């Protein structure tokens, strides 16, 4: 899809801290696809960040006292044009590491779209987690676009580098990112003209 506006920047939030996690494959897939479209894609990996369990939100710390990782994320979130959430499905719901990662912030997400890339070992591709995520993302001020990018049977659908092993994944991802880019461009224009508050 040709771009008529300058490249955008996106945060790719990975939702798993498991050592044998498959989600990193989906994150690599998304990052590579965004970069191929000329955009910046920054991985936000809770395994690397080692964030504490939520006690205080970033905004509740006195200036200069928040953990360094939270300050870095706040700076990143304020400058990106949207968020892509890469989530597995834990007991039909949101992985705890992802919920913890999301809940540290609020205003930093405002007026930006989100998109959900979900996956599972089975045939449903994590869509039950996506249903739960929609409510959370809307409440955080980054409502998700209507499309999702589910990846069923992720172990065989993507190799270790996140390269699709079937046409279905590539086709679904292209349509999903076309829609996500549309919303990101539209909301960027609106932010430049000011926000309601």
In short:
With 197 residues, the protein is α/β, with parallel strands linked by helices.
Verbal overview:
The protein has 197 residues and is an alpha/beta fold. The protein has a single domain (9-192), classed as 3-Layer(aba) Sandwich (Rossmann fold). Helix content is 41%, strand content 16%. The chain is built from seven helices and five strands. The protein has a five-stranded parallel β-sheet with strand order 2-1-3-4-5, with helices on both faces. β1 (9-14), α1 and β2 (40-44) form a beta-alpha-beta unit. The chain starts with 8 loop residues before the first strand and ends in a 5-residue tail after the last helix. The model has no long low-confidence stretch (mean pLDDT 95).
Number of helices in the DSSP assignment: 7
- The fraction of residues in strands falls at 15-25%
What's the CATH topology label? Rossmann fold
* Strands, count: 5
The neighbouring-strand order within the major sheet is 2-1-3-4-5
Taken from the alpha-carbon principal axes, the silhouette is globular
Name of the CATH class: Alpha Beta
Mind describing the biggest β-sheet? 5 strands, parallel
Specify the CATH homologous superfamily. Flavodoxin domain
Structural class label? alpha/beta
Q: Roughly what percent helix?
A: 40-55%
From the 3D coordinates, which CATH architecture would you assign?
3-Layer(aba) Sandwich
Please tell me the overall pLDDT: 95
